[in-house]
Amino acid sequence: MAYAIFKSGGKQYRASQGDFVEVDKLDAEIGGTLTFSEVLFVGEGSDFKTGSDASGLSVTAEVVAQIKGPKVIAYKYRRRKGYHRTVGHRRKLTRVKITGIGA
Q: Which residues make Cβ contacts (< 8 Å) with residue 56, sequence separation at least 6?
């Protein structure tokens, strides 16, 4: 089964055709298509392409949903000082379905 490693938002993701991947929020409509042109690696069995061999390849995906990630809590505490703070956030994500890997 062919898979690719592509870059989006400063992070790298590994995906095969039909996979659902959650990337940092992208400005796209639900049902629209995205093309990730920054492909770092493409592999299928023992055959693989990397570097300049993968420069012309791209990964296409369909936008499934705009969602929020799980809640992340950061608790700050200084012992013996009476100081504690709870801060947290939820990342905004775009869920995409990989529809194709190729030129």
A: 103
CA angle 16, 22, 3 (to 5 degrees): 15
**Of 10, 31, 17, 8, residue with least CA distance to 102:** 17
Q: Do 63 and 28 meet the contact criterion of CB atoms below 8 Å apart?
A: yes
Look-up of token digits 């993968």: 54
The HSE-up count of residue 97 (CA atoms within 13 Å, CB side) is 8
Domain ranges of the chain: 3-102
Q: Are 78 and 90 in contact (CB under 8 A)?
A: no
pLDDT digits (tens, 9 = 90+) for 54-89: 678 899 999 999 999 999 999 999 999 999 999 999
In whole angstroms, give the CA distance from residue 7 to residue 36: 7
Does the model's pTM come out above 0.90?
A: no
